Amino acid sequence: MATTDEQQLVRRARRGDQKAFRMLMERYRRKVFSIAYGMVRDPEAAMDVSQEVFIKVHRYLGSFQGTSSFYTWLYRITVNLSIDFIRKRGKRDMVDYDDMLQRREPDDIEARITPTFLDANPLKAVDRLELREQLAKAFETLTEKHRAVLLLREVEGLSYDEIARTLKVHKGTVMSRLHHARKNLQLALHDYLLERGDNSALIDSLKDNKPETSKKNASDAPGV
User: Fold this and answer.
1) Which class is 1-93 in CATH?
2) CB of 196 within 8 A of CB of 130?
3) What is residue 206's three-state secondary structure?
4) What is the pTM of this model?
């Protein structure tokens, strides 16, 4: 549920208060970049998408209903613009992973998902970095829809209902996409972890152990 402070910022920004809008941007800047990067898999492209997100938010903020969840509306715009970017690009670019590791944000996607794969059988630090590289490659194999649902669930911690509202699909569709996304990620990493003797850890980690309740009770937000 949005805090009173956030609701006030949204109301002020809708009235044209640029300081309030900048505060909203700062509050969600890293989250927006995180989702965009997870989708487009390129830091510079993710930055471009993030900038476009906030341009669009600024342009259409007047149509946003204050009784709805701002973050749900924002996430939906981010996912949609990321998908648009991927489709316009025509194909997923292959990333130089060594260079990508050097340029990453401190809390990049692989770093935040990797511990999930290590809980059942912790590895040494060097193996953790190697797994992150393999996970980055595996993420490239997922479809845009599967990336979106996996990011919103595993990275942002949204509930099934919140993801359904964000993506404007049924809860059952979210559960199905998440199941297939985890399965495909497991298949993409299977050979690597089998060689390492960690396949059982991967299988256990892909089970959804997150509670279905959430601190945020988002209501339907208008799309853009």
Assistant:
1) mainly alpha
2) no
3) coil
4) 0.66
